[in-house]
Design a protein that fits this description.
Layout (H helix, E strand, L loop, with lengths): L7 E2 L10 H5 L7 E3 L2 E3 L3 E3 L15 H12 L4 E8 L17 H15 L4 E7 L10 H8 L4 H11 L7 H11 L1 H7 L2 H8 L12 H4 L1 H19 L3 E5 L5 H6 L13 H18 L5 E7 L10 H14 L4 E4 L22 H6 L4 E2 L9 H13 L6 E3 L6 H9 L5 E3 L2 H5 L3 H6 L14 H7 L39
Parallel strand pairs: 4-5, 4-12, 5-6, 6-7, 7-8, 8-9, 9-11, 11-12
Antiparallel strand pairs: 1-10, 2-3
Helix pairs in contact: 2-3, 3-10, 4-6, 5-7, 6-7, 10-12, 12-13, 13-15
The structure holds flavin mononucleotide and iron/sulfur cluster.
Length: about 500
């Protein structure tokens, strides 16, 4: 994982835990209206892919047990992982792309409601993503996939100062073994990317019909998936307009589509608005429809916080029920993957801003991007709108969360990794047992598993109680799949 060059090690701050009375009087544990629903408290577990679905995207017992475990901590809201809206193979990622997924999905709300005593509202994050290929063996790419054109021969002559050989393809294979940098100069930027990183589709590839037509196909796909979520018993959906995926790419300042769905801010937000309108029209009024947006893409030429504030205000004006904010997590600055693996969006600087670790710069990892998120909220309020915003990134503590709410930087506090380290942490704070919280170390062991598409667990608990035969484990038997139980002392 990328770390800031300063590599300053930040210690976990020493905490003073609130008493039960302080917690009860706090903003964090006060209710909040979201759309037509009420959250019992302003605590939120944001989407986290745990890699527990089947290869066909079906819900499993391990998926249900994962969400049930978070629900025991009784957060105000719990967002189920990014769930695919297209009925295409996408590995062990949940899908809501067909009615055959309904029965499995319906099990999650049942389990969450029972485990939280109905305190936790349950949303599911709906995602669309474009194709990305694994980084190929260079010889294989050059021999089988590169489409040779006259330009290659001309660039060969330019780069090597000699006439191109009759068998240019084989010559490129030979040259790559000795001088890969010269091969890079013979290829164009997309070919270089396909060879060194793995080919990646973009929303700007409008020469391809299926990409050109995304504005016509996506609204209905999102709407049908949302309708399934409603039928399955979820309280709402979070439209995934963040990170490295299709909808965020439409919002990006790098989107220069000239068909009315790019270039200007109005063009870039148009599909996000149309998707929201299609979803809103397809589900009941009480069903919550929110979205997740980036407060900053943190890539060269990408959208900034000013864009985010403008997009969030437009979407709030259209009536989104909440705006959940995240940062970065893009493909554009991802590290080169190993041959045979695909690039992963959280491996570069923008990924660091999404999930900052304790190896940081002077700013440190804790609530690192909340000031930008506050700017987004301020813009929504300045437009006279009350849409709640959810803030995330390095939040681990009651006083810190309470200060964010008191300063009006956000309306709801989301914690992903702290909730993974201790799914009961919100409940422990609320009930005066804050000293029993298992704290996140913010070193991203969990995220390293995520990047390898391995079952996500936490290093603080995944070796505990492995001699207990009733504990569900990873296939190799080495890690438990959910955090050990916590019984509230009487
Ligand atoms: C294992 C893991 C999986 C994640 N999966 C998703 C996801 O499916 N959708 C999403 O929007 N964010 C995802 N995130 C990002 C988190 O929701 C959150 O924004 C980020 O971890 C920063 O919050 P934190 O500092 O509280 O962990 C994931 C994070 C982790 C650690
Ligand atoms: S694995 Fe590390 S970073 Fe992830 S939740 Fe656990 S303690 Fe936090």
């Amino acid at each position: 994982m990328w770390t800031p060059p300063e590599k300053i090690r930040h210690a976990l701050p020493v905490l003073r835990v609130p008493t039960r009375d302080e917690a009860h009087a706090s903003r964090l544990f006060a209710p909040l209206t979201v759309g037509r629903l009420s959250l019992t408290e302003r605590t939120w577990v944001p989407a986290m892919v745990p890699w527990r679905a089947t290869e066909e995207g079906e819900t499993t017992e391990a998926v249900c047990a994962w969400y049930e475990r978070f629900a025991r901590g009784e957060p105000g809201a719990l967002v189920v992982e990014a769930t695919g809206i297209r009925d295409v193979p996408s590995g062990p990622l949940l899908r809501a792309s067909h009615d055959r997924y309904l029965a499995g999905l319906a099990e999650i709300p049942r389990r969450v409601r029972a485990a939280s005593g109905g305190r936790t509202r349950l949303f599911v994050q709906l995602i669309d993503f474009l194709r990305i290929r694994r980084r190929p063996q260079p010889e294989r790419y050059l021999r089988e996939h590169l489409v040779l054109r006259d330009e290659h021969a001309a660039r060969w002559a330019e780069v090597l100062g000699e006439a191109p050989p009759a068998d240019l393809r084989e010559a490129l294979v030979q040259l790559d073994a000795q001088h890969p940098e010269r091969v890079d100069r013979v290829l164009d930027a997309r070919e270089r990317e396909a060879l060194r990183m793995g080919a990646r589709e973009r929303v700007t590839d409008v020469e391809r019909a299926e990409i050109r037509d995304l504005p016509r196909t996506l609204p209905a796909l999102f709407a049908e998936a949302a309708a399934r979520a409603e039928t399955a018993g979820f309280d709402g959906v979070e439209l995934h307009y963040a990170h490295a995926y299709t909808m965020a790419s439409f919002l990006s300042a790098r989107n220069d589509r000239r068909d009315g769905y790019g270039a200007s801010r109005e063009g870039r937000v148009r599909l996000a608005r149309e998707v929201f309108a299609a979803v809103r029209a397809r589900v009941g009024r009480a069903f919550v429809v929110g979205c997740r947006l980036l407060c900053d893409e943190v890539i060269d030429g990408g959208s900034t916080v000013d864009d985010a504030a403008w997009f969030a205000t437009e979407l709030a004006r259209d009536g989104v029920d909440f705006v959940s904010l995240s940062t970065g997590g893009k493909f554009e600055d991802a590290k080169q993957p190993a041959i045979g693996s695909a690039a992963y969006p959280d491996t570069g600087r923008s990924g660091y801003e999404c999930m900052p670790t304790t190896f940081s710069d002077a700013r440190g990892p804790f609530a690192r991007n909340v000031a930008k998120m506050a700017q987004v909220r301020a813009a929504i309020r300045a437009a006279g709108l009350e849409t709640p915003t959810v803030v995330a990134g390095g939040i681990y503590d009651f006083a810190q969360a309470e200060a964010i709410l008191a300063r009006g930087e956000g309306d709801v506090i989301a914690a992903a990794r702290q909730s993974l380290a201790d799914p009961d942490w919100f409940r422990k704070l609320r009930t005066g047992h804050g000293d029993a919280i298992r704290r996140c170390r913010f070193t991203n062991y969990c995220e390293a598993l995520d990047q390898r598409h391995l079952a996500v667990t936490c290093q603080r608990w995944d070796r505990e109680g492995l001699d207990d035969p009733t504990v569900a484990r990873t296939p190799d038997g080495r890690r438990r799949l959910t955090a050990p139980p916590w019984d509230e002392p009487r």
